[in-house]
Structures are given as structure tokens and as C-alpha cells.
Amino acid sequence: MTEREQRDTAAFLRGFDDCGRQPYRWLQKAESLRRTAEIIAGHVIDDFKKSRSGEKEDGRKPEIYPVYLMIAGLALEVLLKGILVGRGEKIVDKGEFKGWSGGSHDLLRLIERVSIRIDEKERWFFERLSEHISWAGKYPIPKRYKKVMPRPMPQGFACVTYFSSEDISLFKSSYEMLKVMVQAEIEKKRAVNRLAES
Known about the structure:
The chain is mainly alpha-helical. The chain has one domain. It is 64% helix and 5% strand. It has 6 helices and 4 strands, in the order αααββααββα. The strands form 2 sheets. It has a two-stranded antiparallel sheet with strand order 1-2. Helix 2 runs antiparallel to helix 3, helix 3 packs parallel to helix 4 and helix 3 runs parallel beside helix 6. The longest helix is centred in the first third of the chain and has 31 residues. It is elongated and about 65 Å long. The mean pLDDT is 89.
């Protein structure tokens, strides 16, 4: 490797590590996912209204709410991870992703790690989002049949794959709460950097 290639590689490596360590980068990615979820949400709402009204359509459209819930879940996952990055979780080192301690797509575990209190309805919502990230947003079946078995929830028994009329508002309120938390971590990092520079 030439001296220039070594310099370029070292600079890219520093940039990679820096990108993984900056909560604002996680917020940017979450914003992309949020925008995508919002675009899909309009179609989900239309489909939901048509199914409730009994309106018939020519041909059967594929359901898109599982994809909406997967993308909404990913947006919240990225915000939760941005909070952890802001609090100093070391996920990259020397150009290598080290992973997350305590699971990667389990939103309830991530919520616990950032010390957020949620009610039973939110707990069920985050559990369903985790399942949509893991499999329900992209595959017709999980690895094990027990994942689709109905289980207790606040309103009775249900499978994790259903769509609720409250899902969109729960996503929006959860997103805003977590976004504020990431922004607080960004501000803390900026304050530390300003102190270091003075």
C-alpha cells in the first residue's frame, strides 16, 4: 500500500468510527426511516378505512401495514441506539462494528437500557414492533410457530402481527419522545466538545 493509500485508509477509518459514535448521525438515519413510515402510513390508513367500511376493491392488494410497522420500529430502534451512543456505548473501534450489548432488535430491552418507563399499551406496541423488525415486516412466517400464537395483551388476546388504529399515533408520540432524548445527548456531546476546545 502506498503512503497516500495508507493516509486515505486511516482517514476513512477515523470517519467510519466517528460516524458510529455521533448521536446526530443516528438521528439523521431515524429521520429518514420516519419519513418513509409517514409516506406508507397514508396508504395504511386508506386500506384500514376501506376494510372497516366493507368497501370492495378489484383484486386483493397486499397488506402493507406489516412493512409500515417494521419501518416504524426501525426508526424507534435507531433513536434508542442513538441515545446509547450519546451516552458512550462503544459500538465501533478501528473500523469494525462491535455490536450492541443486550440484543439488537429487541425494543423492550433497548427501552430498559435507556431507562424509559412505559405503560402496558406501549409495552405491547414495542413488542409487536420488535416482531415486525425481526420477521413480520418481511417474511410470511417466523422461525417458530409460537411467535404467532395469540397471547395476552391489554385488550384481550391477539397475535403480534395485527394492526391497531392506535399504532400510528403511538409511533408518532414515541418517536417525538425519543427524538428529544437523542437531541439532549447531541447537545451534551457538543457542550463537552466546546469545553475541550476552550
